[in-house]
Amino acid sequence: MVAASPIPIRSKKTKAVGIPTIDLSIQNKSKVSRLIVNACEELGFFKVINHGVPKEVVSSMRDEGTQFFAKTIAEKQRAGPARPFGFGCRNIGVNGDMGELEYLLLHTNPLDISERSQSINSDDPTKFSCAVNDYVHAVRELACEILDLAAEGLWVPDKFVFSRLIRDVHSDSVFRINHYPPLVNPVKEWDPSPSNIGFGEHSDPQILTILTSNDVAGLQICFQDGLWVPVPPDPTSFYVIVGDALQALTNGRFVSVRHRALANSTRQRLSMMYFGAPPLNSWICPPPEMVSPRNPTLYKPFTWSDFKNAAYSLRLGDTRLDLFKTATC
């Protein structure tokens, strides 16, 4: 079961609607920039196709994840507990949130990945660490491309103003693999009752999330009117999620979308997320071009460390950015 959250599970029905799909191979990059900005402003979520991430890189990482979660619980526990990095089962964070899942959480620093791989795949740790490093490198490049196009679409002169934060050698980016085992007693599709929540309603605190999964459904996003929208799985594409930090960096122009994952299938679901984050001491504040008397700063300047500490002190469903709103909001 899922521990009670200060924010109740929304009961509005789900509805299948179109998710913005952006083709990154389009030659007219100004058009792509506009599409990205529109999707980030209106929904905070979109799908990218023709993204340039090699299929073999994705399949290799997916295979490594599948093999790890197929191990016995005792073998998996050698990679944990997740404090915060390592193997976790059902516990999400340290404040009582629970879900019907197990997961691996890794820092994207290559040295950390190498050390953690010793306990994740003791038979061939290099195979696992190479798969993670190749995958992280590829999806980081994808995230940076999207952030650069977003900056251009916002008419910010420094197009690297956002991507520079996650390219930094001290970036606090993380990589997560979630495994949702099949339920013993499957329930009605899209039933959001507490016992069927794989990962509860939340927004991502980082700048940008790059997500992909196998062909099993479960992910849902929440529209601003409270309507939950099921996201069709597409193993060949990536979904892009605006995080809290990017909402602050764009002075509220982009919206950090709330989402959740349901565990209600007879089949196992595997999802992989790259969370692009800045260094701990980086200041999160919008470029000067995005602030004016007509568009005053919505949030007090804060460091990523400040925000991360606040996020860890709250429950999963809490709205973290509210702690940093200015008096004029």
Automatic annotation (TrEMBL):
Fe2OG dioxygenase domain ranges (all copies): 170-286
Keywords, ordered alphabetically: Dioxygenase, Iron, Metal-binding, Oxidoreductase
InterPro entries in the record: DIOX_N (IPR026992), IPNS-like_FE2OG_OXY (IPR044861), IPNS-like_sf (IPR027443), Iron_ascorbate_oxido_reductase (IPR050231), Oxoglu/Fe-dep_dioxygenase_dom (IPR005123)
A GO molecular-function annotation: metal ion binding
Pathway info: Plant hormone biosynthesis; gibberellin biosynthesis; Hormone biosynthesis
Chemical reaction(s) catalysed: gibberellin A1 + 2-oxoglutarate + O2 = gibberellin A8 + succinate + CO2
Pfam families (alphabetical): 2OG-FeII_Oxy, DIOX_N
EC annotation from Swiss-Prot or TrEMBL: 1.14.11.13
Coiled coil ranges: none
Gene3D superfamilies documented for this protein: B-lactam Antibiotic, Isopenicillin N Synthase, Chain
A single BP term in Gene Ontology: gibberellin metabolic process
Broadest EC class assigned to this enzyme: oxidoreductase
UniProt family annotation: Belongs to the iron/ascorbate-dependent oxidoreductase family. GA2OX subfamily.
Record's protein name: gibberellin 2beta-dioxygenase
